[in-house]
Design brief:
By secondary structure, this protein is α+β, with helices and mostly antiparallel strands. The chain contains four helices and ten strands; from the N terminus they run αααββββββββββα. Strands 3-2-1-5-8 form a five-stranded mixed sheet, with no helix packed on it. A five-stranded mixed sheet has the order 4-10-9-6-7. The protein starts with a helix and ends with a helix.
Length: 253
């Protein structure tokens, strides 16, 4: 029948149009990091699977929604000679329950995985290898190294951003404070962000796994020079880190 052939052609076109998206969502053995690299820090190992899972969920929901939009547009078009208005249905209780419960279940599942991951990230252990103070100031950062003495402090300026030197493969606890307004300690490559609050000390622990230099920023609007409130993270070997601490200690004598 001509009508059936036309309908079959339409179905094939819809499948061909959606096949690249379906392939990207289900056909890849290795899921992309979607802008992030794995195993950069211990936080990445927790955050990255959640980040990928959220994007996959969004993609699946998007494809299903697109099908629901295209299906009536393609297969329920007004036919020649048909009445001006199709048959109207006032209620469909099972469908209404379904499109109420399904989004709720999706949001509840995403909330659960977010809460589990967050608890892992902010967990405060009983033992860490090192401790570093991170204080936000208008408009730069101060990094203090208690192991090198009370005066071992690196202070930056908007013109000369400071460098946060940390060891590879050793867990470090960061004590986050602020001496004026709210700042945000943000290292994008590490998938880490935590606020520096006046009068409050927040704690963050993680292990840097890869050597290199990574940019850091303040991601809370904190005043006139907020955009210049930058710093650099330098991950070095444990031996180099020990040497760096000795250099700080000697500079404060």
């Amino acid at each position: 029948m001509p009508g059936e052939k036309s309908q079959n052609r339409t179905i094939r076109r819809v499948v061909l149009a959606l096949s690249p998206m379906i392939f990207l969502l289900t056909g890849c053995a290795r899921v992309s990091g979607l802008g992030f690299n794995e195993n950069v820090t211990s936080v990445n190992n927790v955050s990255l699977p959640m980040w990928q899972g959220f994007w996959i969920t969004a993609g699946v929901v998007g494809v299903i929604t697109l099908i629901f939009i295209l299906w009536p547009a393609v297969f329920h078009r007004t036919k020649v000679g048909a009445p001006e208005f199709p048959k109207q249905t006032q209620y469909n209780v099972p469908v209404e329950i379904a499109y109420t419960l399904i989004p709720f279940i999706i949001v509840a599942a995403l909330f659960y995985f977010t809460a589990v991951s967050e608890n892992k990230i902010i967990h405060k252990s009983t033992a860490v290898a090192h401790e570093i103070g991170v204080e936000g100031i208008q408009w730069s950062w101060q990094f203090s190294y208690p192991e090198a003495g009370a005066k071992a402090i690196v202070t930056g300026t908007p013109e000369q951003p400071p460098t946060l030197v940390i060891p590879q493969g050793e867990k470090v606890r960061y004590d986050l404070t602020s001496n004026d307004v709210i700042h945000g300690f943000w290292i994008p490559a590490f998938m880490i962000q935590m606020q520096n609050l006046p009068g409050v000390t927040n704690h963050l622990e993680f292990t840097a796994n890869k050597l290199g230099e990574f940019p850091g920023f303040c991601n809370m609007l904190c005043g006139r020079n907020h955009s210049q409130m930058r710093f650099k993270v330098k991950v070095v070997t444990p031996t180099e880190y020990k040497t760096y601490l000795e250099t700080l200690k000697a500079a404060t004598v």
